[in-house]
Specification:
Collagenase (Catalytic Domain); alpha/beta; 2 domains; about 30% helix; about 260 residues; binds zinc ion
Length: about 260
Amino acid sequence: MKALALAVLFVLPGAAHAAAVAQGTQPWPNAVVPYQLDARLLKRAGATRSDCIGWAGWREGAARMACRAMAEWQAATGVRFVADAKRLDRLAIVPGDRTEAMPGHWPIGNSVHIEAGATYGSVLHEFGHTLGLMHEHQRPDRDRYLSFAPFLRDDLRHCIGLTAVCRDVRLSFPIVATQMSSAYDPCSIMHYLSNQTPRHREDPRWGRIFTLTGEGEKAHAACLGQFSRMTPRCAEVGQKCAISRDDAAIVRRFQRVAS
Ligand SMILES: [Zn+2]
């Protein structure tokens, strides 16, 4: 998976990227996400209407993956996705150079960008941001569970240049204050893989950016059972296969889904 596919777009100063939710992230009104699928994506999918109805019969691609991801999050959390092109705060699902999403609800300009060649797992991850989730490995308690490679710890402290590496480190790896969280969840779809080679292929150290601590191993062993029927790849920390139980539980709490 392309590393950029995991980047979150932060468009406003102080916007917190968001199973944990960052401070400053807002829930969607009434636990409903109004969405609009870009006409280009619909055309490529062979869709004949502007909403997701019938998506399972569409051609593979961004629109089909977006509709599948929305259906999966809706089933897991009860947050509803409703096609509505008129709302100012509608979620625009559009093609992009990267796969990225804004965290939570904003009064205007909500979007998910999907790049050509994006994987379904990365799209499912981005809709987790849409629903308010932040990256699990950026929680304030992450160092109890992860031991970051020395080079990355150094970069986090000292990287101040405008290089691509510094920008990436400052965007995707600092600790972010939370307003709500489950126990640390190595099974979260919002957790990065340790192998981040595609981010910076010129530097092999990105091939293993963290190892689990003893507590991390325990937390991982405790959550793995939920993926026992999936392929072994889904048992890795940083799985991009499925919404974890804690991901769903935190979204339900944060979005105040009536039970
Ligand atoms: Zn992300």
